[in-house]
# Entry
Amino acid sequence: MAGVLLAIGGCGLRRQTASPIGLNGAENREQPALSGDGRLLASLVERGGRTTVLLQERRSGKVLPLRHLRRHQPHSSPSLSWNGRYLALLIQRGRRREAVIEDRASGALQPLFLPGNAEPRRLSLAPDARQLAVELTSQGSTRLQLFDLSGLLEPDLAPGLRESGGGPGGPP
Amino acid sequence: MMRRLVLTAGAALLLLSGCGGGRLRPLAGLNQQLNQLGQGRSPSLSGGWLALIAARGSGRVQVQLIDVKRRNPVPLPGLNRPDALPISVAVDQNAERLAVVRQREDRTELVLYKRSLQATQLLPMEPAGVPRQVSFSADGRVLAVEVSRGGLWQIDLLEIP
# Structure
């Protein structure tokens, strides 16, 4: 197992620090998001002074490619579906924060048009990708809204219920 | 010829759907329910459950758990304390486990709440660090924790039996 095995605590916890990717591991890594099956980890790192999403296999630390997410930084609030087919996150396009979903199976980047003028601050994608929770901020107040994605995305279900693929870099 | 036409039409449709984006359909009834809980933040969706941190007008900040299908808040006895301020929450797909980062007195702590036991368990940071944000795998067996340690933000991965 890659990464640093820190301890096995008295309550049976097994601890690991996510595999370092910078020199000596001296690099900030923020906003972790696990895929539903726990196989993949998305997080935010600095790349050329810009906060950029990074997708890795949790156990090996192997970095997986993201086709559309080398631009539009800063990125924030990554969230993964069950098999990691979908990665939802916030990107910066001009002055606006925008919610998008990269479909790793089809290679498409799906912009999500939120109603109203509120700015999205945080996302949570349901593991089956049927719903999205969005924390919105407007005039100093925050609220949560839930949205139905069933007309936009195929579900990404657990094995046995599976209707869709896990995208590139999936399990053999 | 017909096959070529079908393929061309299919490719055009794929291109359109890839570029066009999607207007999201709000879950109106549920969103109304969420507005009644007060200002909400730190959402965590899993398996038909939504965990969040809600602040009512009175200033009380609490972890809330919503059954999305029934649009009902579900009680969390023993989790919310008057002396604790929740910062981040994550829920597993059965809503059996909730991981909560909270500020209590002068320290920030990570606790695991088991709903069937109505009990919280402290998950200490080792080596010492200050937790900020949490994410669960759907089965609640793996927890990713953003931790400030030695002037850096790191991610700890905890496998919970």
